[in-house]
Each structure stands twice: as C-alpha cells, then as structure tokens.
Amino acid sequence: MALKTFRPLTPSLRYTALPGNEEVTKKTPEKSLTVTLKKTGGRNNYGRITCRHIGGGHKRKYRVIDFKRKKAGPASVVGIEYDPNRSSHIALIEYADKTRAYIVAPTGLKAGATVESGPQAAPEVGNCLPLSAIPLGVSVHNIELTPGRGGQMVRSAGGAATTMGFTGDYAQLKMPSGEIRLVHKTCTACIGQVGNVQHENVVIGKAGRSRWKGIRPTVRGMVMNPVDHPNGGGQGKSKGGGGRQHLVSPWGQVAKGLKTRAKYKTSNRFIIQDRRKK
After folding, report:
1. pTM of the shown model
2. What domains are defined for the chain?
C-alpha cells in the first residue's frame, strides 16, 4: 500500500501523507454488522473527565468484528473495507449458509479468497488455527491470551508476531515489541501480518484532521501558571517552575523514568524476555 502525497499548495499539504487505501474494495459497511457508537467526550458515568483531550469528531458506526473465529467451514472474502475505529483494515467474509462476519484483514488477503478456521485449516494467510497447529517461524496476528476468549493481541496495522517454539503446553511467541512470551498452545491465532502496513508513516498534516478524529488540543504544562500545573511558572523556558522539580503530570505522577507496571504480577511468569532487553 502506497501513501498519497500532495503538491505543497498550502503549508499543511507540504508534508501531508495519507493512506492510499488501494486494498479497500468495498466502500459501504454491512448494515447488519454495525452498531451505534456513543461518544463519551472522555467522561465517565459521573460526567467527570477521566481521559483528557477527547471530544467532537466525525460520527462513526462500530463494526462488529469476529475475533473468536469459532464458526467452522470455509468462508469467501466479499471485500476489504476501511474501519474508522481501528488502524487496520477489515475483511467481510461470507460462509456457505450466507452468514457474514468481519475479520481483521491481513496483508495479501483479497476479495474472492477463501479463509477457514479450526485445527484442520491449512496455515495460509487469513486462516485461524490453534497455536499447536501453526509451524515455527510463521507470522501470526489476532492472538488469544485465554482459550475461547477471542484474539486480544497483535491486531493493529502492520502488526505480526512470530512463533518461536514450544515449552510443554505453551507456545513461545515473539511479539512486535520484541517481547518473548508464553501463550497456551490451545489458544488460536490468525496467519499473516495485519494489513495497512504503511499506517505508521501517515502524516496528518494539519490540526483540523485531528479534530475530525475526535482529538482535542493539548497544552503543555510548562506554559501554564503554577496554579494550573506542577510544571507551570518560572521565567522563560524554565523546567517546572524554576528547575528544581521533576517533570510530573497534573496530579504529581513523575512523567519520565517512573516504572508503572506492578513489580509482582501473575503474568510475569509468562514473559521470557522483556521488550526492553534487546
């Protein structure tokens, strides 16, 4: 997939690079697989802002994605669609009984192709298999953490994990972050790399495009007053009101270098190699 660039007729167009979406073959979503998506504005059920810089944006319908892939039998790919709710593209598939579903579209999956789920399926792009049935060195995505719960890992654009080996009842997977972790071999995963690979190279170009996405402006704490932020105040570009304080969030959480992951966690025993240790 190539990115679209533009002649610099305006300052914002000079560096803008938008997705070409050549993979997309179907423009309108399947109505039976869409539900209304209510905007929160970053507020919880008490009406208090719990996630800042959210508001506005274009209306969206949520596409119901089949992350579990439990339905047996082959299914044909009707088309590849754009999904406004995720970075990856999605594929509409149709089973023999005319049942339709959305799946995350891997690279190379095209309209007219056939995908299948289950241990009997071949390890080909788009198929969903238990980790025990997937050969070593194969790229996978949409990986389950708990058997039967549905894929939770490696679902964003361009993502791919690699099967490394087996240790007892667990498969070793190298995640896109570089982490090597154990996942039970009865968990399922889909073959291939998630599509829309060039998503990470997109340059939005202008502030307005962020507003279309529902992202509101962020003001740096350093340019605020001391009453508004711990880093506010001081003469000129002073680090945190005179330079004595460490950079912190508006609620005093250290912003740089503080480890926020719990020291003792049950999932630690499944991590063979930390993502920071290359």
Report:
1. 0.91
2. 3-200 (2.40.50.140), 220-278 (4.10.950.10)
